[in-house]
Amino acid sequence: MTPAARLSAAIEILTDIETRRRPAADALKDWGLSHRFAGSGDRAALAGLVYDMLRRRASSRWLMEAETPRATLIGMLVLQRGETLESLAGLFNGERFAPEPLTTEEQTALASRKLADAAPDIQADVPHWLWTSFEAAFGADAVKEGQALAERAPVDLRVNTLKASREKLLAELEPLHATATPLSAWGLRVPLGPDGRSPAVQAEESFQKGWFEIQDEGSQLAGMIAAARPGEQVLDLCAGGGGKTLEFAAAMDNKGQIFATDSDKRRLAPIHERLSRAGARNVQVRTPRGALLIEDLDGHMDMVLVDAPCSGSGTWRRNPDAKWRLRPSSLADRQKDQAAVLKAGAKAVKPGGRLVFVTCSVLPEENDASVQAFLADHSDFTPAPLQVLAKAAGFSGFARFASSQGLGLQLSPNRSGTDGFFVTVLHRA
Ligand SMILES: C[S@@+](CC[C@H](N)C(=O)[O-])C[C@H]1O[C@@H](n2cnc3c(N)ncnc32)[C@H](O)[C@@H]1O
């Protein structure tokens, strides 16, 4: 496909996403199935275009003074990819498979409008209804934070210290230009390819051998703050596919015991294969049978991780679709889920133990507010000082990472160069 033909296809796919209200991944997959002539390079470039349009949906539309997929594409090409009126004319040339030439209105909009004149939520590409809570989270930095969440994210890896060292893995992944991440001692970062294409790290022999996992540096830091130690008894209550379980097994050097469970057994299922590839031998997976099977752990755990279900607003760089699909009702549902998992997790913590609460959200409703509600009902739990959490994560200061109410640390692309994560540690008396 020519670059111009890819633009026409990107407009078609965004139209499909919006008219049928379907997830971007489904629309991209279907387009690929019904256009077999498109090669993997075309499909990757199209995915890059569509996700970039979603990242910059509000600002692009404002710039073009139009709400259409075509306007979204033109605005994104200017705002995100640095195209100009002149360069766009070469692509929007009306030739076979290329989009129609720019109209007079489009040219006027591009020549006269400046994004700095737009409302802050538009400049930040944050849904209007969420702006109040976004501002509560980030105050004067809110626009900068939204813009950082509208960028593409690199691919972060965590070296599995049960099998390899970071130096050894860096040497192995040198052809992919891997570098050490700045904060996590276990982190490596692999840059994206042209068109935002993700490097095929899972095809590497070192991945097959279990030397690393794909895990954002912010998620690694959340695990470091939880500070699982060799010999401890640990419950990972919302283990999902096991990202943090695997991190704990390595941090504990396979010593002690981790219980990994999740209310959704389909999400938990991949953990078995991942544990065996990683050589993690101190994990008991508790697959739920209708109910979670953890009553026998009550009051026995040194540490319980509640990596809670949330809106995922901290991962908008990777999943910009979620930003526009989020609804007030689902945010309220996630808050109820958070109350339930915190309550369930608290029961398993032994006196003197700790409950670690993590979300991949930047919204105060899901972070400080959920912790506040929990503490109101659990007077035997006390939040750890932020200095202690920041030190565990290797931060030189802590004030810059304090959440809006100071009940935990708030990581974000702008603050820590990671996905957005909230982390707090609550000690049981
Ligand atoms: C953020 S994800 C976990 C990610 C995982 N810890 C990782 O690091 O890869 C949240 C998980 O919580 C699970 N969950 C939701 N409600 C739950 C509940 N009441 N009890 C246990 N798990 C629950 C979801 O199925 C989902 O897998």
UniProtKB/TrEMBL annotation:
The keyword Aminoacyl-tRNA synthetase does not apply. Pfam families: Methyltr_RsmB-F, RsmF-B_ferredox. The active site is at C360. Coiled coil: none annotated. SUPFAM superfamilies: S-adenosyl-L-methionine-dependent methyltransferases (SSF53335). InterPro entries: MeTrfase_RsmB-F_NOP2_cat, MeTrfase_RsmB-F_NOP2_dom, RCMT, RsmB-like_ferredoxin, SAM-dependent_MTases_sf. Belongs to the class I-like SAM-binding methyltransferase superfamily. RsmB/NOP family. This is MFS transporter. It comes from Labrys miyagiensis.
